[in-house]
Amino acid sequence: MDVHLRSLRSFVAVAEDLHFTSAARRLFISQPALSKQIRQMERDLGFALFDRDRHRVTLTPAGELLVPAATAILAQWDEASAAAARRARDGASVLRVGFQTSVAGDLYKRTAALFAERLPEWRVELKMHPWDDAACGLLGDDTDVAFLWLPVPGEEQLAFETLRREARCVAMPDCHPLAGREILSIVDLADEPFVALPPEAGSLRDFWLALDEREGRPVRIGAHAATPDDTFEAVAAGQGLALLSQGNAELYGRPGITCRPVTDIAPAVLALAWRRNDERAAVAAFAAAAGEAAGALQGVSANAASGVATRKLKLSSR
Known about the structure:
Blueprint: H1 5-17, H2 20-27, H3 31-45, E1 50-52, E2 57-59, H4 61-92, E3 94-99, H5 106-118, E4 123-128, E5 145-150, E6 158-166, E7 168-173, E8 193-196, H6 203-208, E9 220-224, H7 228-236, E10 242-245, H8 246-251, E11 257-261, E12 268-275, H9 281-316
Parallel strand pairs: 3-4, 3-5, 8-9
Antiparallel strand pairs: 1-2, 5-12, 6-12, 7-10, 7-11
């Protein structure tokens, strides 16, 4: 009977913690999803791995027998796959860049241009990740660096270069009663259903539901979305409202949807991230290029805003 590596990781985590909620937290998945994986593994094997009751979880004799072998298989696979990935990357000189919302604007273009000037022998590959992979492949060694929104599960394993901070807006259908307001507060949105990221997104899901600012008030979930496009489709269909960064409100805007600023919640933080133990020169060069590009664009935005203010002053003085 074949068993997937994901199922083995779930089994070992529960076997180590003997607690489904704790193990799910370590795996960055929801407790119901973990329980489902274990049940499916037990069905595939044809025997129980754990005895469960209201008070505790224990390994069955069969489960105890499997733990050493499962742990060894995972360790061997992780070591071999990491070595193979390093060999492939070093030979191909390819830097894999993850993202979740579009980075096709000036930020990515400037970063890639600076990186190419400094390491012309390297090639960049972009890969979009769904919301259930909040760390954009970094925790699973699928990417080398990633443009992502903070916070993310597993931050202690990552290093960051903060690129910009953006106010958050709320997206809603044009016909929504709140669409006529110029600005909103979280209190105005307290009873509204929201489009949520998948449970696997963990702390990132909580941030885009503004749980910290709700002061313990529960949030109504009208729908779940795996990608930005899914989010806007759900909003347009009237399934719920959605918080998003000001930049993404402009980038992904579409007919039938209105975005309004929410004034009393923390701004969104866009960062470049990479694994803390990855000390390759190419990773450092890309991070430096991203920081420089973000700084240059911030200066351009400040100059543009200053220019607008100056023009308004001149017009008003006439």
